[in-house]
Amino acid sequence: MRTLCSSTLIGEFFIIGFAGLVAMKDPSLSVSTVWLVSGVAMLLCVLMCAVVTRPGGVALGWVLQIALIASGVFVPTMYFMGAVFAGLWWASVHFGRKVDEAKARFAAEG
After folding, report:
1. Sequence-distant (≥ 6) Cβ neighbours of residue 91 within 8 angstroms
2. Is 4 helix (H, G, I), strand (E, B) or coil?
3. How far is the CA of 24 from the CAs of 8, 31, 40, 74, 86, in angstroms?
C-alpha cells in the first residue's frame, strides 16, 4: 500500500505546485499567501509518504484529498484534478491493501 499511496502523493505534490503557479495570476491573491499555502500542502504530501501506513495515515490522506478539491475555489481546474486524485487515492488504498494481503498470504504459505 505504501508504494501506491506514496506515488499518488508525489503526483499531488507536483499538481499543487502547478496550481500555485496558476493561482499567482489571480490579482486578488498575494503571491506570498499562495506560496505559503501551496508550500505547506506540498510539504504535507512528502511527509505523508512516511506516515501513510501508520494509524490515521489514510484518514489524513483523505483530508488532503478534500482540501485539494476545495482548492478549486481559487483555481477552478482543481475541482477536476482533486476529484481525479481522490479517485487515485481510493484506488491506491483499496488495491494496495489487497496487494499487502496477498503478500502476507504468500509469505505464510512459503
Report:
1. 4
2. helix
3. 24, 6, 16, 10, 24
| CA–CA distance, 71 with 1 (Å, rounded to integer) | 26
pLDDT tens, 62-74?
A: 999 999 999 999 9
Q: Give the Cα separation of 37 and 87 in Å (integer).
A: 23
pTM score of the predicted model? 0.90
Are residues 69 and 16 in contact, defined by beta-carbon separation less than 8 angstroms? Answer: no
Q: Is 9 exposed, middle or buried (0-12, 13-18, 19+ CB in 10 A)?
A: buried
Asked if 41 and 82 count as a contact pair (C-beta separation under 8 A), the reply is no
- pLDDT tens, position by position, 5-55: 999 999 999 999 999 999 999 999 999 999 999 999 999 999 999 999 999
